[in-house]
Amino acid sequence: MLSLRIVVIGGGAAGFFGAIACAKANPDAQVTLLEASRQPLAKVLISGGGRCNVTHACFDAEELVQNYPRGAKALRGALTRFGPQDTVAWFAASGVYLKTEADGRMFPVTNTSETIVECLIKSVATSGVKLRVGTHVTSVKRSAADEGFDILLKSGETIKCDRLLLAIGSSIVGYKIVRELGHQIEPPVPSLFTFNIADQKLRELAGVSVNPVQLRLSAGGKSQLQQTGSLLITHWGLSGPAVLKLSAWGARVLHESRYQAKLLINWLPLLHQEQVREKVLAVKDEWGKKAIALHRGVDLPHRLWQYIIARAGITTEDRWAEISSKTLNQLVQELTQGQYLINGKGAFKEEFVTCGGVNLKEVNFKTMESRLVPGLYFAGEILDIDGVTGGFNFQSAWTTGYLAGIAMANSQTA
């Protein structure tokens, strides 16, 4: 029997992991990994601020999938077959140890993404995978002679294979190849981004952070989405984990509304609105002769407090005893349901995540094989899967890449 010819297109996290898993599981297979750029794993290298957030210390699949705005249902079973604990063990077996930070994110103990990149490149070499960089794929066709594939390169060369793994990321070329092979692509739109807020007074508070806040998003007349977490005020508006998570869950509705939306901020989510009112009234009773700007009575940064009272129509000279019930109600409203207008999106430099990709109903998540094209497999960001920030997107790449690699290794030629 001839040995399996397997090609993986895409030299990112998912592609490397799939190629390595395949070659290790079937040493007789001829595994070739194609990468268009001269620098494979470029995204891994710059991820997590150069530290690489490899995965997240969440070892229950049911809980883990709650961090995927798209793909949770499809990933649930897959993550029980290869989850974060398996990722940790895989890297440890390769001599790379991970550490867990307070928020659950896991990084290499070396604190540099170069450790992960070097590990993957070394594993590719030792497992017998043939890595070809600077190799541009222009199209893929089903082979007329058999059930394999003909991969046409920009150079004019054609590579033939029996099994093909597309781990090509959210690229125009990748989507073109997928469509040519008969698959649907869910339209790609950005995920994980910051909010532009056209409020100069707010922007002057750049650097101020609050944890926690509760955010509610209303866009395009759609039902509100909600997230709780820390928030950072920036020179362009709002950032921080709560904003990034909300942008991920609201990726499509925000895209449809052209990033024009209403944002409600509860600056004191640990208290009910009536509890906030009681706190404010208590301060008014106790510090009636004091300036409101200097005696806040709630746990918020001083500069932010001054901004919020100004939104409620209170000046820096106003004293607690002087404000009316109407003004006090307005202050409570600003503290618990302040309205802000989003008028565009910013970038999130440490992540490059797109929502959209191959329709998940067309993929068997036990093997990552296409339900439409036998011998074709998918892994990574080419799929309509995306997670919030915190190592979840890398875990999806490791999981789908590994399952595809093992399935290809164990498949039989006709």
TrEMBL record:
Annotated keywords: FAD, Flavoprotein
Q: Which residues form the RsdA/BaiN/AoA(So)-like Rossmann fold-like domain?
A: 5-405
List the cofactors.
FAD
Transmembrane stretches, start-end: none
Gene3D superfamilies of this UniProt entry?
Answer: FAD/NAD(P)-binding domain, HI0933 insert domain-like, Translation factors
Q: What is this protein called?
A: HI0933 family protein
Q: Which domain of life is it from?
A: Bacteria
Ranges of residues in domain RsdA/BaiN/AoA(So)-like insert = 189-353
Mind telling me which Pfam families this protein's record contains? HI0933_like, HI0933_like_1st
InterPro entries membership: BaiN-like, BaiN-like_dom_sf, FAD/NAD-bd_sf, RsdA/BaiN/AoA(So)-like_dom, RsdA/BaiN/AoA(So)_Rossmann
